[in-house]
């Protein structure tokens, strides 16, 4: 196992980086071949201390022309996971006018642990001087995804030590009773769904939808595939699919992206 770099070694690397800022091949060799992810973060901090410049911002400003891909990779190497998610969230909301990438936001809100999600919110506020939740609330035109995202944001404050099977059974039964079992056919009880999304932790939500399938023989999303469903149902379907099977969800997203590029 390699020994961690000494303070003097990191300072020497920073000097080498500073003299090679115009040479992307040297920068790639330093960051991708010589440094671990943690050492990349340490080097970024030390470089900022020594030269008053953030390497992430420097590399971002170089993303154009033939070396754009190289500097994109270099900029990503500078980020902690929560910083990277904060930037993804910002781009999802503001990068394309009138085209919010809600699926990217769902992946952050559903796929991150509460401790990581808290760091994302902090990184977002520190970098952009704005609050992530407030930016989501202010999205125009309004969309059902906003209600779901705000509820999921609240769910990260549910500090239950571990998921409860009993609570999961109760939630699954209530989902059935307020959905499939209603007279006149299946209809989402939006108020109840938002209630459990906001009051249950992510592991507890996963357990509830898993128990639903065990009890009733099919996924909760079965009735959400109806073409006549509204905006809220379509948004909820994405959330439940991610909760039920994140790897499968990501695989389908990647396949869909590849198909669009071919």
TrEMBL record:
Keywords of this protein's UniProt record, alphabetized?
Annexin, Repeat
> Known SUPFAM superfamilies for this protein?
Annexin
Under the heading Gene3D superfamilies, the entry gives: Annexin (1.10.220.10)
Carries keyword Repeat? yes
Task: List GO terms (cellular component aspect).
Answer: cytoplasm; plasma membrane
GO MF annotations in UniProt: calcium ion binding; calcium-dependent phospholipid binding; phosphatidylserine binding
Q: Is this entry keyworded Membrane?
A: no
Q: Name one GO biological process term.
A: response to cold
Q: What is this protein called?
A: Annexin
Q: Could you tell me which species this protein originates from? A: Mikania micrantha (bitter vine)
